[in-house]
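To: structure subgroup
Subject: Chain for Friday's discussion

All,

I'm putting the inputs and outputs inline so they're searchable in the archive.
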Amino acid sequence: MVYIFSNGVVNFVKGALKENHNASSTITEFPLEDGSTISDHTIIKPKTLVIESGVMDEDTPANTYASLLKSKDNRELLTIQTKLISYSSMAIESIDAVEDATVGDIVLFTLKLNEVRFASSKQVKIPRSKLKNPKAKDKMQSKKNRGEVDHKQVKVDKSSSSSSSADSSSASTNSSVLYRMLN
């Protein structure tokens, strides 16, 4: 029997035809020069659950599907109670509904759920006495005056140019554009 709770209310209760519980980790591996591998960390992945169930016409499969779809689209976090374990903070990744003539009036549902985990951060003050280099903090927070940028107009020497007057007017235009960019 599977119970799915949405906002504390039982949303879907059925006997599951199949439940697939998955709790996995990734173990980091680092190759060494001698060809061996070392592992120094484990990353715990979010739990996943796949539930296959059937709903008969008397249980209104359309209402069940609509309710589950609404929970998925609203990104509701669900609590799932199975015979094996209770999950909290589960989100519906996908819903598959299959109508098949071989099973009669039953609509088969496959729900894929993933655990949603939240991270939180905390701001902590570190006393200066605990810092290796207390002056480093002052350097990071201070703003050093690095002077001002001189925005002088760039002049083009027209006398050294042996080009036509069209070229010199182009150079003058380019210098005024450059001047506007610098200002």
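Points worth raising on Friday:
The longest helix spans residues 165-182.
The helical segments are 61-73, 134-141, 165-182.

D.
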